[in-house]
Amino acid sequence: MTNKKAVVLLSGGLDSATVLAIVSSAGFDICALSFDYGQRHSIELEKARMLAKKNKSVIEHRIIKLDLRAIGGSALTADIDVPKDKYAEVRGSTDIPVTYVPARNTIFLSFALGVAEVIGALDIFIGANVVDYSNYPDCRPEYLEAFERMARLATAAGIKGHNIKIHAPLLALSKDSIIKKGLELGIDYSETISCYSPATSGASCGKCDACAIRKAAFEKLNLEDPIAYD
Amino acid sequence: MTNKKAVVLLSGGLDSATVLAIVSSAGFDICALSFDYGQRHSIELEKARMLAKKNKSVIEHRIIKLDLRAIGGSALTADIDVPKDKYAEVRGSTDIPVTYVPARNTIFLSFALGVAEVIGALDIFIGANVVDYSNYPDCRPEYLEAFERMARLATAAGIKGHNIKIHAPLLALSKDSIIKKGLELGIDYSETISCYSPATSGASCGKCDACAIRKAAFEKLNLEDPIAYD
After folding, report:
1. Cβ separation of B113 and A96 shorter than 8 Å?
2. A202 φ, ψ to 5°?
3. Residues of B with CB below 8 A from A168's CB?
4. What is the pTM of this model?
5. Whether A111 and B103 lie within 8 Å, measured CB to CB
6. Which CATH number fits domain A5-220: 3.40.50.620, 3.40.50.10780, 3.30.930.10, 3.30.565.10?
7. A123-155 residue pLDDT tens
8. Which of A60, A182, B78, B186 lies deepest, with the highest CB count within 10 Å?
């Protein structure tokens, strides 16, 4: 008997690396999906390639080119500055940060849906997370449930009664719990990156929200973050 | 006072050309959105460009590059033959045709959602249609409603209580009713194409499902289809 297939969204960040390890340990055959979307921090893609290559459950890794810059409106894809040293100020705010990329998760999940339909997978995994600061509307459980409902109506699989599931196993975990879980599963976090605005050397800035959250989590665990900071 | 903005999905086909005219006549300022997705019938894009250029309500036309071939699984994007002279046989069938592109409408609407969010539009228009043969799961009203619900949860606009709407004004119209409506609005249908598999000259094959439906509709209206057939 062959394993069940899953599609895993793999950015190369800490969260999606952990999701990959979780799905792998659950015994799925994995189609990892990454996007070359004109992101400022394209070093992510190199990390994604390494993570996919090293994981024996990954039977294929698709990198899909798409142009989110044609949408614009985000510090991650347009000429808007990534905020530095602002995490302490914005934590607890209900504002949506400028690093929010409009409809990004919806677009990524839509591609995952298409791939799932073609390869015959019913399980799609995403590293969405609501804990710590983010306020991204498309990381909330109610959003993911609505996407799943839509996905069932959108597909041939759904019409045949095969229900596609959107899994977000990190949804309710704090960043330090995610890291702890990942370490138990043997992840080498030196192979991930979280920074929104890394140097050309690949070193993380240590100052953007993503770096601040990551650093605080490693500190909370009394562990050293194995990646290089500027 | 400025007009309300709308995002209109514009393929260059007969349906989306009609939607464009409807939205234009309703007084919206339009951001037309087309996709260069590795379609076999890329002459569509030329038609879309012309339609957008000629319509005075179109304030911008974005053509987004994306690689649906990386998904595959469809006669429109992969090396699967487009069926010819089969429309009479499949009409009334509940099978999903091989020209169905997995998750295509979901992907297109997701991009429209991102653009709407960035330009401040709350109205998205798509030429989806359930009449005549198609059986595409992502053209059904229940799918479009589920997408709309998801879209409201996905966006900053939705969080602020601004409800994004997905409009499919052709949903319940037969192809001949669509053409009649379009002619009333002054559309020149020679500027559209429907064929799934046009010749390099741009002429339509006359034999695929899309051609068969189009030809039958013009015949029903006792009108000559102004486009060239092979």
Report:
1. no
2. 100, -10
3. none
4. 0.89
5. yes
6. 3.40.50.620
7. 999 999 887 656 788 889 999 999 999 999 998
8. A182
